[in-house]
């Protein structure tokens, strides 16, 4: 549902020399569901400056394929998976695009894939997308957890893709929802995804991003803690091989009292040209009294020729908080850990694999879906065995 564009908020420059300047608070970014409201991307914009835009110009151009596609999903009596029209009342309730690729997907999609969760008993459902093809496509997904419901929803992505999409996640009062998005695309796939989540009163969301396959993969979660007592655990795991670009820009907005957030992303890089980007924005708004927030990013560099960009940001508009902090670190193997393992008779190669496995599986173990966790551990092991990258 396109909405009318509004000018980017601006204020008078204090020194009077340069007229008006954009409002700097993270929540004041320009938003629109109409791609025509966004200028052509140059790569100099803050949201695009780390990513090679020339490799997905087709996803920034108008005229994407917005038709429905083949989907497989597990069945459960308390979960429905179907296609809904653009006038569905849930569309636009969790957030709106802040950049051109996201708006292009919003303008282009014909029907939205809707996953609706009811029932207070825990359940797990997997939605698999593996036949998107290699044409430029725009898509929209809704995941709604009704009040007091519980579920784990896994979005499993594989095969070919040139996809830009928006995923709206809506949690009703006291809902408990885990959303896991797994990117195991083919080597040349491009996937640009924006996740918008609205978390209601006393609701709890666990949002997990796992990016392993694809040439360019960017998953940007934007979490709005809208209800008092709302809670988010935002977890991420990524492993970049030679020539891969894996990016995630995380935004958590504490917009209600007594909300809590924990952001923890970990990544490993190996092979020439492997590039990862993590940007973490946390905004504690004026209504966020009693907020408890912490975000961190850790990157482990395994070979020469890689690059990891890590940018944590924290903005606080109220002094009445429990705590807030952020941390970022990028480094190589811990020589003391390697020495300890080798002194116990373990070869250097195996010691390195053990260190990396222990570093990454901390995130895997917190997903809460045993079969998926086991499969991801095997996938990480396969990545480690490919020490020269792809």
TrEMBL record:
InterPro entries from the UniProt entry: Fe-S_cluster_assembly_SufBD, SUF_FeS_clus_asmbl_SufBD_core, SUF_FeS_clus_asmbl_SufBD_sf, SUF_FeS_clus_asmbl_SufD
Residues in SUF system FeS cluster assembly SufBD core domain copies: 139-359
Stored Pfam families: SUFBD_core
Organism superkingdom: Bacteria
GO biological process: iron-sulfur cluster assembly
PANTHER family, sorted: PROTEIN ABCI7, CHLOROPLASTIC
Family: Belongs to the iron-sulfur cluster assembly SufBD family.
Protein name: ABC transporter permease
Organism the protein comes from: Cryobacterium roopkundense
Taxonomic lineage of the native organism: Bacteria, Bacillati, Actinomycetota, Actinomycetes, Micrococcales
